[in-house]
Amino acid sequence: MVARSDGESQGTLCGTGSYRLALVGALCILAAPYLDGKQSTREIAVPSNLALGLVKPYKPIVLRSEDEFREILGRAQDICGEAGVFQLVGDMSGLVEFERSLQGFDFANECLILIPVTYGADFEARLNAPYVKSRKLTCRVSVVDPRIRLLDTQLVGHPAARTDCFGIAVSRKAVDEVEVWIQGKRVASLFVN
Prior knowledge:
The chain is α+β, with helices and mostly antiparallel strands. It has one domain. Helices cover 28% and strands 32% of the residues. A hairpin with a 2-residue loop joins strand 10 (177-182) and strand 11. The longest helix has 19 residues, at 17-35. The protein is globular, with a radius of gyration of 23 Å. The N and C termini lie far apart (54 Å).
């Protein structure tokens, strides 16, 4: 409340437009270090069978060069071919499209973060919006049950698990470190340079 000279009280500052504007401005200044995550990263579509090229146990990795990328891609293609379970037309095509989509990827200015996530077959994995603070990029993956809306039914989970892989291109100029969190647990801290 603001006191007037005649002893009456005037409305609070919350009701004034200038106070709201100042509050919004202050919040923008405080949130500014978190807003450039979208500017220094971009999501890359990654086929789920690329995770097969990663060494078990599956952990997030940084690909800093074309040679590292080729090694992972080659290993995934070899495993897809050897497994016999995969049909080359269906499963190998995702790897071929992925390789084509990264032609011209500039490893001098960007690196590729691969985040494999293993979860139950009935669940979905989602990559939340990454954010940057003090040159550290934080990536959070959540695993959710899409059936949760069916509250009146008994949920029986499927015993099978699957592994998907998220890819994020990261600007080397804007980020030094990438922290990966899956289901609220920090699983990796990776250096991009």
